[in-house]
């Protein structure tokens, strides 16, 4: 078995007497899309925050391609190949749409983060930024500030930033939240395109089970911070513990 692109071993965090994530061990391999589901308060976003470095674990570890991430801040984990799109948008609100994407493209190219330079003689980077805006259907909004976008368009812009960084591991936290019905397919098609490349690892927190069924080849279920199910989508969704914990259904003994 190859080394996982991402692995958590007994990952745990306590807030006082509350265990928000409880000894979760899971490995994620390239070419797979794993949906992480569970009821509200199950620990899904907290698990993401531990992986990406927004929170420091009480116990356990996160490994990226076998390399321990302990002590590394979120920025260092991003540089190491871990990409995170947040449940709440994480943009530069006063910059234009194209400037937001340009910064991400420039960072990926190792060209620094100075908006005043580089662009006049790096047409390739400008064109890359414009292609990403076309991919997320934001070309017509390229000169608007990020703050002026609708919530749905801000989510699409955040996906463009993540695509610009081209990480080894993509982490999407409810990427379609707040989007209109018409906007959802754009983001889902982009995620499906990433999966189709076959060399990326995708983690997806999502409440919409139709989205999970259409994209995931594996589901893990968190409940009260613990990993309670892990497997092929059909089997996991049909399991009694998921019917009870996630769907809230009564299951006969």
The CATH class of the domain at 6-93 and 165-245 is Alpha Beta
Q: Separation of termini?
A: 38 Å
Strand content: 15-25%
Biggest sheet: strand arrangement = 6-7-8-3-9-10
Uncertain segments: none
**CATH architecture title of the domain at 6-93 and 165-245:** 3-Layer(aba) Sandwich
Q: Which class of secondary structure composition applies to the elements?
A: alpha/beta
CATH superfamily of the domain at 6-93 and 165-245: P-loop containing nucleotide triphosphate hydrolases
As a percent range, the share of helical residues equals 25-40%
Shape, per Cα inertia axes:
globular
Secondary-structure element sequence? EEEHEEHEHHHEHEHEEHH
Q: Figure out the total of helices.
A: 9
CATH topology of the domain at 6-93 and 165-245: Rossmann fold
Average predicted local confidence, pLDDT: 86
Annotation, overall tally of beta strands:
10
Biggest β-sheet strands, sense, barrel: 6 strands, mixed
The radius of gyration over CA amounts to: 19 Å
């Amino acid at each position: 078995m190859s080394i996982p692109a991402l692995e958590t071993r007994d990952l745990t965090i306590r807030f006082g007497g509350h265990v928000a994530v409880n000894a979760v061990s899971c490995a994620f391999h390239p070419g797979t899309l794993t949906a992480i589901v569970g009821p509200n308060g199950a620990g899904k976003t907290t698990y993401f925050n531990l992986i990406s470095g927004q929170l420091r674990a009480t116990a356990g570890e996160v490994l990226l391609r076998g390399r321990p991430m302990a002590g590394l801040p979120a920025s260092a984990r991003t540089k190491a190949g871990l990409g995170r799109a947040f449940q709440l948008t994480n943009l530069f609100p006063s910059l234009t749409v194209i400037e937001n994407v340009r910064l991400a493209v420039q960072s990926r190219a190792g060209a620094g983060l100075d908006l005043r330079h580089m662009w006049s003689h790096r047409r390739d980077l400008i064109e890359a930024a414009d292609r990403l805006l076309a991919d997320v259907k934001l070309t017509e909004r390229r000169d608007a500030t990020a703050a002026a976008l609708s919530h749905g368009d801000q989510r699409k812009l955040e996906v463009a930033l993540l695509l610009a960084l081209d990480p080894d591991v993509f982490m999407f936290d409810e990427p379609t939240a707040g989007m209109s019905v018409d906007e959802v397919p754009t983001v889902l098609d982009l995620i499906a395109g990433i999966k189709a490349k076959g060399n990326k690892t995708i983690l997806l927190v999502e409440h919409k089970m139709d989205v999970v069924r259409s994209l995931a080849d594996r589901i893990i279920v968190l409940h009260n911070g613990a990993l309670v199910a892990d497997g092929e989508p059909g089997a996991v969704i049909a399991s009694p513990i998921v019917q009870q914990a996630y769907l809230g259904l009564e299951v006969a003994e």
